[in-house]
Write a structure and sequence with these properties.
The chain is of the alpha/beta class. It contains nine helices and nine strands. The strands form two sheets. The protein has a seven-stranded mixed sheet, sandwiched between helices. The chain has a two-stranded antiparallel ribbon with strand order 1-2. Helix 6 links the parallel strand 7 (195-203) and strand 8 (217-220). Helix 4 (137-153) runs parallel beside helix 5. The longest helix has 20 residues, at 171-190.
Length: 279
């Protein structure tokens, strides 16, 4: 029985006084790799062991791309109205307010201008955390105004897409943003101002069918899901089994839909070199 007795009392903490490790200190990838969140941030939110790119939002992309995280944000107060008086499980305005409170964002996109390695640039970046990065009237209008700023100042435009598609609560008003943003990009093209479209995980629906695929350079992060409809819907429509990973960045690059795939850790350098070449 001596085996079961503690001879050295040492430091004994009562059970009720023991503290759990704080949530959010560690991140686990889909493949099971574990990394400390501080190391993850220092590595551009890419897991070194398997190269997994963690989903991030506009705050993190602006920190990564703008020199010294210095930028001027555009149209900061714009937020959604309720043109259709949409009611589902809760009124649309209530859903918007809940998303704003949860994310500390006004809507699913932020736009800003600044410098990237000294190169002047306008960036519009989507936030998936805000109602799935859905494209509503505010998203389309803010992107259109960001493009207008690029036109006015004659500086390149970078669009970072991350979206589940059109926002159903705005119906036709949401779908109209596809035409509006595409028309503004046509003006950018006629003015000869570079437009780079960066597709991240996931980029789907009406976003893919409009501004995300209209870049002078269409690029993506590794392993990103990019497509219009989901695999199950496509299989049911065409009646065929789809190849494995057919909506991944790598598959799209192989079949000519993308110009190149860029690791997020190299994103700022690659974009800067590309823009300097275009100058």
């Amino acid at each position: 029985m001596a085996w079961f007795r503690r001879k050295d009392k040492g430091i004994q903490t009562p059970t009720e006084a023991k503290k759990e490790a704080p949530d959010g200190l560690w991140y686990k990838t889909p493949s099971g790799k574990i990394i400390h969140t501080r190391e993850l941030k220092n590595n551009a939110y890419v897991v070194p062991d398997d190269g997994y790119h963690v989903r991030i939002g506009s705050k993190e992309y602006f920190e990564l791309l703008f020199d010294d995280n210095k930028f001027t944000e555009l149209d900061t107060k714009m937020q959604s109205a309720d043109p259709l008086d949409f009611v589902d499980s809760k009124p649309y305005p209530d859903r918007v307010k809940a998303a704003q409170k949860k994310t500390d964002l006004k809507d699913a996109v932020r736009a800003a201008h600044g410098k990237m390695h000294g190169v002047k640039l306008v960036i519009a970046c989507m936030d998936f955390s805000f109602i799935g990065g859905s494209m509503g009237s505010v998203v389309g209008e803010k992107i259109a105004r960001a493009i207008s700023y690029s036109l006015e100042k004659k500086i390149p435009f970078l669009m970072i897409s991350k979206s589940g598609g059109a926002r159903m609560m705005e119906a036709g008003f949401s779908l109209m943003q596809m035409a509006k943003t595409s028309a503004k990009l046509a003006q950018l093209d006629r003015a000869g101002i570079p437009y780079i479209s960066l597709m991240t995980d996931p980029t789907t629906g009406g976003v893919t069918a409009s501004y995300a695929m209209l870049g002078d350079f269409n690029i993506a992060e590794p392993g990103a899901l990019i497509g219009f409809a989901g695999p199950r819907v496509i299989e049911q429509t065409i009646g065929k089994t789809l190849p494995k990973g057919f909506q991944s960045s790598e598959f799209l690059l192989e079949h000519g839909f993308l110009d190149f795939i860029v690791d997020r850790r190299n994103l700022k350098d690659r974009l800067s070199k590309l823009l300097r070449m275009l100058e």
